[in-house]
From TrEMBL, chains A, B:
One of its GO terms (cellular component) is plasma membrane. This is Magnesium transporter MgtE. One of its GO terms (molecular function) is metal ion binding. PROSITE patterns: CBS. Acts as a magnesium transporter. SMART domains: CBS (SM00116), MgtE_N (SM00924). Residues 206-262 form the CBS domain.
Amino acid sequence: MEEKSYDQRRERLLELVRSKRLKALQLELEEMNEFDIAEFITELGEEDSLKMATVFRLLSKEHGAEVFAELDAPEQQEIINSITDKELGEIVEDMYVDDAVDMMEELPANIVKRVMRAATPETRALINQYLKYPENSAGSIMTAEFVDLKKYMNVRESIARIRRIGDDKETIYVCYVTSADRKLEGVVTVKDLLLSDDDAVIEDIMDRNVIFCRTTDDRSEAAERISDYDLLAVPVVDKEDRLVGIVTVDDVIDVLEEEATEDFDLMAGISPSDKPYSRTGVVEMWKRRIPWLMFLMLSATFTSMIITHFEDALSRFAVLTGFVPMLMGTGGNSGSQSSTAVIRSLSIGDTEPRDILSVVWKEIRVAVLCGITLACVNFIKMLLVDRILLSNPDVTVMVAFTVSLTIVFVVIFAKSVGCILPMIAEKIGIDPAVMASPLISTITDAVSLLIYFTLATIILRI
Amino acid sequence: MEEKSYDQRRERLLELVRSKRLKALQLELEEMNEFDIAEFITELGEEDSLKMATVFRLLSKEHGAEVFAELDAPEQQEIINSITDKELGEIVEDMYVDDAVDMMEELPANIVKRVMRAATPETRALINQYLKYPENSAGSIMTAEFVDLKKYMNVRESIARIRRIGDDKETIYVCYVTSADRKLEGVVTVKDLLLSDDDAVIEDIMDRNVIFCRTTDDRSEAAERISDYDLLAVPVVDKEDRLVGIVTVDDVIDVLEEEATEDFDLMAGISPSDKPYSRTGVVEMWKRRIPWLMFLMLSATFTSMIITHFEDALSRFAVLTGFVPMLMGTGGNSGSQSSTAVIRSLSIGDTEPRDILSVVWKEIRVAVLCGITLACVNFIKMLLVDRILLSNPDVTVMVAFTVSLTIVFVVIFAKSVGCILPMIAEKIGIDPAVMASPLISTITDAVSLLIYFTLATIILRI
């Protein structure tokens, strides 16, 4: 076991680059895996993009294609700019088609043209076909490099076929059995093959109960199949039920991470994007964040109107104003707890929209418990801290009672809205993550004030 | 391709159960995969737990163990209660050790005792060993069922070994080469084996540069290795560098989903737990949610104190009160955008704590852009809507200016705090997700009020 972590290696590699000891560098790189090399090249690019290309040229042809696929768009572009058309052509041919398509979607049009010109006609046709699938569909992330078998083959023939064509397949461990017209008939794993007799016929050992998805399905459906059924790959069929590609488990991990990031973004009022934080420019970040901030700021006009409406009462009972932020905060936090829990539960398939009644009932009971606990603590705190410790005589028992009773209603309202809105969104086909904390806080803010002033009017007769 | 989705099957299965046509049901179940059967059994359990056990007994021995592993703790417990010790023993023996350990951690102590009694001494020893690893460590999620090879073996011998022992291994596709003292020396895939000559020696085709992790590493490190390096499994070694288990990609998908759920929970001020939403009782939900709500409610005392302090000024300039909710909301939303983006970026490894200066500098520039945009729109809106449309003469140009200027400072402050706190948390080893919206909103609320009243004192001379 000679594992050397990238961090330990880093300094030595940088030293080799600086002292131009390219032969030693090449030997070192040969031992490393594509992920670490890509990270190293990206780091180099930060100081000097020329060095990046120099290091890249040291890689063997096959290794080069793998490293290239791991790089992000800006570095890919930098490297494309500094290599010949012939070198570019070799890289594209050695890349898996789905990686090449991923790359195309990120690169500027003039570079895409150069890449397409450098590819062979067959690769070009494949890439073009893939680019036609809708964004974020299973079709757009699948790969055509799978092993197909026929049901009349026996195990020996099948293994021979895998040995012959397996080298450039993305996975050889799951093989798909197709009919003459390319319809998917079954699935057989290399484990099945190895554990069966050499003369056994595929038809007898294949599993006919294939879990699959369609090219037009959302990519998250492919991810769900793989995750639910613990698969290494899921086959993708077209409208005519013909097998056109597979989605492998490593792509699915990326999908799951991207989808979670998308939910985080949406829930914080940020327009989602595929770009990681570190790669997003300031202006782009502003564009992704300003719409919700603007909308929420403007919709706060309602809270202003409510406060203005009760201005006279407030000036007579000025002590009430001091508790407005606490009430709105408690409402907002209660609501976002519920919305977050429900949104997450929906997105991992733990809850379905049809469960709406039981979810609301559960949230209301939790809200009653939380509301009463908070109200009791607040009542004691207002009398002990605000009245006695901070010696504010305006905080009377009736004021403390009004504020505490408001808390109960506000928490119940906030938690109900917090669970109902995401469930409705899911039902009508909107991403429930949009119905998250910022929106719910804004609604809760206005309603909290209304509840507060209404109760104050009744109890304190303001 | 005879794929029938579970939803289509469901009604027919239920009908078979109701009419007690057990033979037909058994045939149907034999064709289904363990995930769908587990879902069906869980659904049955909701109406009648006796039926659940009846259906479970129809499954073949092996199939039974797989289905059992897919069930949640309450259903497992239900079934354990209604089968004999002999049946229980068979199930435990047929389960992968890591699945059995998962189960043990969820079941009540008296049931665990029964399970342990039913297992063979070897299985019992293995389970006990696993239960000793810290919670959420790589050791706690690994499985001991891997294929080990020796470096002096040739390809033919290796494949023969896989055929002999591969049946009950969690993956056969990645094999680990170990020395006589069980130290990890290399890794070889079945693809390498199949694509090599039958007489090739493992030593020559194995990859010595093994990506591994340690039993005491956090499980998320195992997940990161698999996700970064696109692996099917990562080997786990103990303190003496001996190979003791592997973590497979299907477990890692679960880990990634659980870690994301944990971040969502923390960021909404909910204490995280492994239990899905639908399985969490009302009192447990209250316990997980009340601490943060309580803390945040009590810490709002500061905002009350600030407002009380400025009470006189506010009663003379009552119009200012109306904009407090908008300012606090805008601050909270701006801050939570930054904290969410940074927390997510940290958790997928896109940003490191050492990037703190560049992150803060980026967030400040975004904040200046957002702040100015919002301030301009707000200035126009206050004069057009509040002053003219809602004919509120108190909203003067100077008031609008004060509120708008406050927005600029509040947004800059909120976005700075929103990115700095999570970065510091990560640096000192606290989960950055704790530093999320609720906490940042509370800080921002108090500071927003201070900025607002200070600017108002200067500009409006209140």
